[in-house]
Fold this sequence. Notes:
This protein is an alpha/beta fold. Helices cover 39% and strands 20% of the residues.
Amino acid sequence: MKAQPKASHFIDGEYVEDTAGTVIESIYPATGEVIARLHAATPAIVEKAIAAAKRAQPEWAAMSPTARGRILKRAAEIMRERNRELSELETLDTGKPIQETIVADPTSGADSFEFFGGIAAAALNGDYIPLGGDFAYTKRVPLGVCVGIGAWNYPQQIACWKGAPALAAGNAMVFKPSENTPLGALKIAEILVEAGLPKGLYNVIQGDRSTGPLLVNHPDVAKVSLTGSVPTGKKVAAAAAAELKHVTMELGGKSPLIVFDDADLESAIGGAMLGNFYSTGQVCSNGTRVFVQKKIKEAFLMRLKERTEAIVIGDPMDEATQLGPMVSRAQRDKVLSYIETGKSEGARLLTGGGIPNHVSGEGTYIQPTVFADVTDEMTIAREEIFGPVMCVLDFDDEPEVVARANATEFGLSAGVFTADLARAHRVADQLEAGTLWINAYNLAPVEIPFGGSKQSGFGRENSVAALNHYTELKTVYVGMGKVEAPY
Ligand code: NAD
């Protein structure tokens, strides 16, 4: 299987290569096969990309939002027309099953271009402020050159979630995908040009943690939007702060999902499974601490085990497969080591915990794993594992579970399953998280803001809120009379 792109980077409307950059091997996680060889951006490539973005941006910003939006909506249409091809590429890039990518990856990217293309004409208006004779007005102005840096779990979606609002608002973007998943973003760049995006406005360069700082520290960059881990977020935010650049930080989590004893059990189990096993557990907002009220604990665990053991693990290109491999060997090793820590710290392994027999070989598969009797101080209950490992904790009552759910430095997401609506809203009100779900989990349609609080980050993606993060407010005061000065 090969997925070699025309070149490593996409700059100023075309593919560009510079073989002087370090080699990045794209590995298909299901087989371990090298499917493409690319090169990390050299400083010259970084300069070229930022210069192209800087040159193209003013003319784009001067276009009407309707005209910009029309191009983005066309890109959404092209993505939908090519959904299968893009989904297969996403599966090759990440190892995620085609059953998922076909409904969740390019489609959510297309939603983003459609949504921001559609609202650009209405959502960038300013205010008129009457001042009794004098008046003022405000304008939302683009920031200029924005940098997007992506994680490897949703490469196409991240490339679109950052690109769509940035472009709709009149900015140019230089996007760097994760070194683990370099392929998808190049296709997005290609499609945008095909849709009519003027060259230089959406550039993709490859690279790893040593390339990122070249972008973040560049004096012509006005904003950085990062999707990644908390430690990386701290580094990137600190570097951006040195030049007071705008930042959006979409970072990690250890989110609580609370199941009260009056909840619909099958729905709660379904929510917990989706919130731990979708994308082989590699989802930032996963509800990895599942708090189950004691009265229903045994019934919950019994059905959870049954349903988890029925998950179909296998070839990601087979439409029947529900769980693919992890993105890389390093990530799988990290998850396996957390599983060992869970066992040694006394958690009860309910199911999973190892490598499935029938899919051995070079594929980086791992069993969906559930630990029961997990307590708050265990490592697996405190640290982000970023794999298909669910921790089930017990609780007695509402005040206790809210306090325990909030006892973490993370604050990305949270969920509550209950039939008592007043309780659902009361608990949602008290949980410290950027995105909460009641009787649902992990749904992030483009219409609603998505992002974290506490160390899970700041700024929001999706919704009108994202446009605000790619613009700044300019206020114009208009004096209508003579200036009266006391001197
Ligand atoms: P990571 O932090 O290792 O890397 C993220 C990106 O940052 C990569 O492109 C990497 O090359 C780049 N990078 C690393 N160091 C850098 C530096 N010093 N300067 C600039 N760029 C740098 O994260 P990952 O392992 O790719 O992804 C997994 C993490 O991402 C998890 O913690 C997960 O929770 C988080 N995540 C968050 C969201 C969200 O929306 N909140 C979504 C997906 C993933």
